[in-house]
Structures are given as structure tokens and as C-alpha cells.
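#structure-requests
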Amino acid sequence: MEIKGDEIRRRMIEHDLLDPGGFVLVGAQITGQLDLSDVVAKKPLVLRDCTTEQPVLLDRAQFSQLDLRGLSAPAVHARGLTVDHNLSLSGARLSAAESIDALHMRIGGSVYLDDGFHAAGSVTLSGSQISAVLRCAGARFEAGLVLVDLRVGDGIFLSQGCDVSGGGVHASVRLRGTRVDGQLIFRDGRFSSPDVALDVRHVRVGKELFLAFDGVEGKAQLEGLTYEGLPRDATVDEWLSFLATRTLRYSTQPWTQLAAAHQAAGHERDVRRIRVAQQRDLRRRGQLSRWGRAWHLIRGVTVGHGYRPGLALVWLAGVLAVSVGVVLISGAVRCSTVEQVGYALNVATPLVKVDATRCTVDAGAASGQVVLAATWLLQILAWAFATLFVAGFTGLVRRNA
């Protein structure tokens, strides 16, 4: 069956004469351009499995429902389109370099780009408002998916075989600034780019985030991404590896968000692991001066940046062991072996008291001078490590409180 695009436009303009079910065509060949720009129709338009050789124009049009399932066309232009209920392009095949240009749509229901939907060119829905869900399960986007500043009520589903590649100089999937009141799901999909595959900067997710990293083939930009609860579909180890190696640069916020999620869930051990991994990433990629990097390294080695204060005790024990070894090996301290051990512990840190008259150091001998100099240095180190332990432990207690 063939029908002219002008005839469809005329029918929709005269929508009062249509059946309450709206205008329905199945399997039709549409000749000429289907231009429905600025058409206001209060009844559904159903063009199922239809074919046209020219782009479909829907700019600023209004429909109660729009069903374009199985459409074969070069492109769909729908800037400012308003649909009271659902917009469906399930199974549609679009071949132009700009397959969908649909900025600032207002959709009262859901948008379906699923069930075999295929776009050879870019798909742009930026600035649109979708009351229910955006479903892209099983869809293929060859030149990127742009969802910047989107507002979605129930959720975005980029799952079940959703394949997004391309994007040019931008990320394959761009959701920067998007707000989702429900869930954001990247599950069982593939998102690939030679550079940035995923841009979710400043995205706010009202409920859970489902993000499986094995489907992300490229870098990701996660700065400003917030979500409720624990992120799903990836372990803590996978998150630590991804944030450290698959992001463009060091950023504090993604680490802080992940730690806060686990803190709220009561996973204190994971919180410490996240914080320590964050500090390693800061030292490796952060903007630190040479001295700042050196001091950062010292804090990491000695107390794990305050999250592993037990390390300071290990260093303190090492200092005490060295002190004992220096005293025993030198032979410059004149008293029994047990008293020499006590003397070594006493000079490093006053944990053990010995009779000073029974243990004397032969200061006239070279070995005695070495012992005196070494114990002074070891005493400084011992007190430093003891202080670091107390500072790290009390800080950890305050954070847990």
C-alpha cells in the first residue's frame, strides 16, 4: 500500500474526523516527505512497519500517542515534539548521519528505542522530559547516544544487549547533567569508544545505579555522578580498579560518593579500602607538588593516610627492634643482656625503666658514641610513630563516631 505524506498530514490536521483510535497504517510505503511539523492532533498516530525514503518531520507537533514501530526511514526530526502518552520507535531502522534530532521533547509516558532499534547516525534527545522510562534494551546506536540534560521519571534502561559506539570527539553515551528520579541501568550492554565511552558527569540518580564495567570499552567521566544506595552489578574491587585506571583524570567526588554509599550501608572495611585507594590515585594522578607528593607518600606508608593507624605501630616496633639490636651488637653498654634490652627500650621510648647506675655507656669509645647518636635518632623516630598512631587512631574514631 502506498500513501502520500501530504495525505497523512491532511488526515491529522482534520483529526476531528478520525476514529477515536486515531490514524492507523501498517506496512505502508509513504511517498514524498512526511511533514507533520506544527500539527496539533488530539488522537493517536500509528505508522507501524512503514517505509519512507525521506526524513520524517515532527518538529513542534502534538499527539496523544505516537507509534512508529518498525519505521524504515533516513531520520526523524522531532524538536519540541509533545506526546501525551508513549512515543515508540521500537524496531525502527534509521540510516542518516543524524538519525534522530529530538531536542526538548515533552513525553507524558515512555520513549521506546528498543527491540532491534538501529540508528546508523547520531541519536539526540537532549533537554527532553520523559515522565516514565527511556528504554533502549537491545538497541544499536552506531554514532553515539546524546542524552544531555534529560529529565526522566521512572528510569533509563541501556541494557539487554544495548550497543552504543561512535560519538566522534564526544563520548559514545553522553548523559551529562541528566536527572533520573528512578534507576539508571547499564546492564548486559556494550558501550565502546577509542577514547571516552561513558560521560555521566553531574548525573543525579534518584534510586539505584546498575553499572557493569565489563560492558564499558573505553574511558569514563564520572565527576558529579550521584546515586542512592550501593551501586549494583560491580564489586568494590572493580570500582577501585575502574576509578583508578579507566577515568580521564583524578577527581575526588567519585571516590567520595562511593565511600559515602558504603558508609551508609555500614561497610566500614570497604570505606577504609576506598579511602586508601583514593589517596593512592591522588598521589599518582593528582596535582601535588614534589614536596606534597613526598609527604603524601610518607603519610601513606606510615599510617595509611589515617585509615590504617596500625601501620604506625608496626614502624614503632621496628624502631624498638633496631634500638635493641644497636645496643646488643655494639657492646658499649655495660650490664646484663636483659638490662641492655631494657636500656634500649628506655632510650627509644620510656616504656621500661632500668637502673641507670647499672647500665652505663662507654662514651669514650667509638662504639659508645655510635650508640648514643643512634639512640637519639631512634628516640625521635619512636616518638614520631607513636604520635602518628595516636593521631591516626583518634581521627579514625572520630570518623566512625
